[in-house]
Amino acid sequence: MGVQNAVADLPAMKSDPKFIFFTDFDGTITLQDSNDFMTDNIGYGRDKRRQGNLDCLADRISFRDSFRDMMDSVTKPYDQCIQYLVDNIKLDPGFAEFFQWSLQNNIPVVVLSSGMEPVIQALLHKLVGPDASKMQVIGNNVGARQGKNINEEGGWQIVFKHPESGFGHDKSIELRKYSSLPEDVRPTMFYAGDGVSDLSAARETDLLFAKKGHDLISYCAREDVPFTVFEDWTNILSKCREIVEEKTTVKEAAKEGYEAYKRGDAGVKVNTTK
């Protein structure tokens, strides 16, 4: 009964899948990170934002505090922010094909994001279309500042899903609900991400796809977290097909990332002092 209850509480398990694909949203499904895009263009700018990313990687500041600082610098009314993003953010060119393949093969896609659910839902509706409703989205939310409406200047603020966590949204909490299932029920778990918001998820799945040239690769190489590199979702689709069709294994795929990193093929500077 305990296992049945646990499975019943997990929407992605309703179809009894053998595989589930968890993914970051910003900069992973999309070409641009919507939060970075707002901060760089209508917030305090790229230089300060990028320094915050580097400080997170170096453990000088929590992701939660850095991200809140970023969002606090964006004062445009919330409805205008959403429209600004809908007008500018583009989908990774390979994601639509991957998503249709996942639907055909009973591989649920679950978005785990440190961004804000209303923004993600609006962008997915625009970029993916009606099928976007078949994706579960779990992220942070948005709320009005005291005495204000979110749709006025300086009226909104981010509301963290896990405010007690240094991640703001600790993605590992959701992932462990699945990884802790009994072996005969537990699906194989994939995860795709690109940056500091994905650090809490990096160790929690069977195969981590880390985006070429981004901070997640530097973290994985430093912390000995197995991963494989992707440039876009055509790479992810190809690798997942190989695994589902049993042409390769998750274990073999998970060795590839560090080898690519050592060869200098992962798009980040190799740390020779490691």
UniProtKB/TrEMBL annotation:
Keyword presence, Secreted: no
InterPro entries: HAD-like_hydrolase_phosphatase, HAD-like_sf, HAD_hydro_PyrdxlP_Pase-like, HAD_sf
Transmembrane segments: none
Keyword Hydrolase in record: yes
Domain of life: Eukaryota
SUPFAM superfamilies found in the cross-reference section: HAD-like
A Pfam match: HAD
GO molecular function, one term: phosphatase activity
Keywords assigned by UniProt, alphabetized: Hydrolase
NCBIfam families reported for this sequence: DKMTPPase-SF, HAD-SF-IB
Protein name: Uncharacterized protein
